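The record is given unchanged here:
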Amino acid sequence: MGRSGGTEWDGGTGTHPDEARTGAAHETPEPWQAPSTRESRMLWWGSAALVLAVLGTSVLVAGEGRGGRLPLAEALVLAQVCALRWQTRAPATVLAAHAATGLTLWALLPAVTLTGALLAAQITLCVLSALRPPRTSARALAAMCAPAPLALVTGGTADLVLCLLAPALAWTLGQWRRTQRERARAELRRALAEERERLAREVHDVVAHTLSVMVVQAGAAEDVFAEQPAQARQALRAIETGARSALGELRTMLRAFRPETAEEGPAAPRHPGARLARLAELADPVRATGMTVHVHHEGILDGLPAAVDLAAYRIVQEALTNALRHAADADEVSVRVRAERDCVNITVTDNGLPGHGRSALTGGGRGLVGMRERARLLGGSLRAGPRSGGGFEVAARLPVERVS
């Protein structure tokens, strides 16, 4: 929560073993993740229906008059359909089984095209391409294309091309699906990171302000405990009040992050007390430390968009905390808020000595960084730095889109 010298900001499941074995982490930025049970079931039913309709019909037609070969061929088709049930759990194993049974089926009934006999294997290749690292699925694609020259035995060049094209299309479709899943997971991870950052800002703003006031008041109570016990008790009561207020605000904030249930009804509004209309209450704990706080506002503060209202409140809160913590020589702070139709302007200044008690922004604090981020998310700007005549100033401008 340190300060800088005049800086301005403007708005603007586990990893699959193949990845560890091959060191292909750069090929698969997202960890392997199996589809849900519902997705697996739908995939099984769809692929099973396709194999039965296409391959089953081809076997019945090609096996007419073949005597004892037809029952065995039908059994191989059923075996392929059953194996599809595990294609999302162990696609490489199922692919090998489908390739073996498909080649056996083609050997029994040469009238069935090689591409048709390997239909189940091509479906599983698509699944493997979607679920496994590209290096693994590329090896499977090469293995699927290896038997293609056999198509010349019973067919011709057209069958050969089809035997090469079908696996390539299946692999490409799987890669497309893999890309879609990776994008969805990346978007989810980004959203979670933003939510964690937002929650961290809220917790920091609530806790840091209250603790800063409590530290000053505790030090004052210790100084006057023996000679002025009444003043010490007043400081201790202020500490208790501030702690209870912060605890209540934290509870309200954390309650808003709990899932809504039918029994509890809709979650309570987040930060109901964090509003510009309560600026005076925000300044009272700082005044209790002995610092003079002047609060002046112009315009109508009620009716601001909730996001702008909260951001403005937190910026003022953090600026007061900065003055309390980092300007030990300051004894006066001025807060000015001007609400216009299209923006809210905030200026917080203190009268500390130039450069005294000021730490760099790179010192690891979150205060100015959090204020900057709040302004940026709303498309506004924030400037923070020492004033030429002494003291420190935080100035922010937040755009407003009012509902007419």
Notes: Residues 17-187 form one domain.
